[in-house]
Amino acid sequence: MKSPTKSILFKLNTFILFFLTATLSFAQKSATISEKVAMPYQADWSSLQKHTTPDWLYGMKFGIYFHWGPQTVQVASKNPEMTVLEAIDTWKGEKFDAEKWADLMQAAGAQFGGPVAWHGSGVVNWDSDITDWNSVNKGPNVDIYGSLAKELRKRNMPIISSFHTGDFWSRMWGQLSKEDPTYLNPYEDNSKYATANKGRISDAIFKAWFDRISEAIDKYEPDMIWFDTGFGGTVKGELKNYTDNGRLLPDGANELNSVPESYQQKLISDYFNKGLDLGKEVEVFYKTHDIPPGIGLRDIEDGNLLGMQYDPWMADINMQRHFEWRSTWFYNPVNKVKDAGTLIDMLVDMTSKNGRMLLNVPPMADGSFSEETKKELYAMGDWLKINGEAIYNTMPWIFYGEGPTEVTNPGHHGQGKDHGELIPKYTSEDIRFTQNGKNLYAICMEWPGEQITIRTLGSKGKLYPGDIKNISMLGSNEHIKWEQKPEGLVVTFPKEKPCDFAYVLKIERR
What we know:
This protein is α/β, with parallel strands linked by helices and 510 residues long. Helix content is 28%, strand content 18%. The two termini are 33 Å apart.
């Protein structure tokens, strides 16, 4: 009979090995900047396209970030009449603890993460020298971004910071920018700024937006930044069906609520050049077609993509399931969290398609996490302790998978908002593949019983007879019997399940 102590030590040692491999890889590859760019980046798309995805980022498959702000108080109050300004006055965040937040991220198996730096109100979540509407002067009176960034850096975890600025003109409370002493009082009507530029948003607002985000980058030196919908505005056309994969269709609007290209280019070039100055590789994430291809990585909000993707990408996934009164990106006890099995299935499927998951884990108004949230995150961490080898630092194979199940509603919100029920229900016939070096991983989405036949790995396919040296199941010490036949690779499964969710066959190739 297997010793429980030995089993626990085996799982723990495996997790530590692969988690350290991921973080050390990040540290080593960030130590010296690539010599691919000899000159600083210029503020134009052609220059910015010379940027390449950092080598360390390819191995990063699972991150966590946190929607936390006055909106959390609004949701918790259950009072639809409560304004953001009233919520700021009652947002105390008395249990916020950056160390505990980082502990939870690591317990869940996350490789990278960070705070939502700015979301949907005039309050920024850092110690700002531009505006007094910041989380040090208001609300919890703490530098949320700075304290969490410091804690993550101690643990050698790459930092991602996100910016969600809505309609811009109503989010610039306080002094506009370092060069413009104009003070926008949120208790006054500032709507003139929405149309001050010949019917469009005032340039002063975009300058204020630029200065705030530049300040956050300069203060906290994130390894990744990503911009929500307002940065380029192309998501709206996609969701409203008047654009299609970068084409403006004959019917529908032609308007775009976007940051002007000059500000986009200046911000990204400054950020890339700061990476050069710091001697590290950095990356930008954006929505849909918000910037030209080849400059950063696409992000898909609460959704997935159909089929193998030949460019790396990311999906930001909300841990909460349903929309019930106001936003679920901020904690709402009515909106139940997705269970660990569902989240792991999504992570596996995305990883096999060259993607990665950024999971939103919403804290409660006081800065702590619900027991339900922690339970599912710990379960994810337990799975990754055993099976992280098939996720961390992997790359796609020739085939991403086999089986009957695929995403039916790809794209933004395809598995969120009103479409949460469209998250695929995988079967024992569904398999996803990843690889690292000579090792190929076949991830069985459900337990098939005694035996499985993997058609993709038959001797008539990509793997020739004799290519397979050995097969084992991660987390199991049982000997695995297998035979490669023309019609498929036949594998006899262990008698006992090594974990509670997807099951990984490690196929060592010659």
